[in-house]
Structure formats: structure tokens, C-alpha cells
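Q: How would the C-alpha cells look for this protein?
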Amino acid sequence: KVIGRSQDTAKAWIFLDGNVATYGIQDSFNISSVSTHATGVYHVNFDTPMPNANYAVAGGVVEDAGGYNDIRGVSREGSQTKSTTQFAFWIFDQSPGANDGKVSLVFFGD
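A: Here is the predicted structure in C-alpha cell form.
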């Protein structure tokens, strides 16, 4: 498996359904699995490790459980160390721990 050949090529990406009823990876590249650790807290595991832990992550969350004025976001889980093999994040709305969004994350690095 060839992983991104330059810094301007994504090293990994994932589209994850965080809804409890339909939870799971919808599509991905260089992601071996995702596990949940609390409501709205996820760990993404890379199939091939990143060269170092200084990679950049871009992402967002869409499609909540209802209203059109609900703000959703995704943030790195600060209690977890960013590593070459795993990235921990949480989905939030007005408070931490939302678990009804569809998350897209893209990883860039060396």
C-alpha cells in the first residue's frame, strides 16, 4: 500500500458515522479502526503509522439529530497524546459528548 508521496498528499482520511444507531466507518484511507471511549469520544487508529506526531488534521461534523441551529464541531481529545498510530477526538455541540454527527477528518504530514 502506497501512502501519500509528498506533504501535499493526504496520509489518511475518514468519513465516520458517529450516530449510535448506525455507528461505523463509512469510508476511509489508511485507517485500520475506530473505537469509542466515552459518549462522543473516538480514537482513530492508522493502518500505516504516520512518520511523526507533527501531522496536521482538518475536519468537521455534519448532520445532527434534528434542528437546523445546532452547532457541531470536532476537536482533538486533549487528555490523549497525539501519536503516530492514533488520533483521539471528540464531537461536541453546545457541550462535549455529542454522538450524532457524521465526521470527516483528513491527515497531512511528512
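The first strand starts at residue 12 and ends at 17.

Residues 40 and 99 are 4 Å apart (CA to CA).

Upvote if useful.
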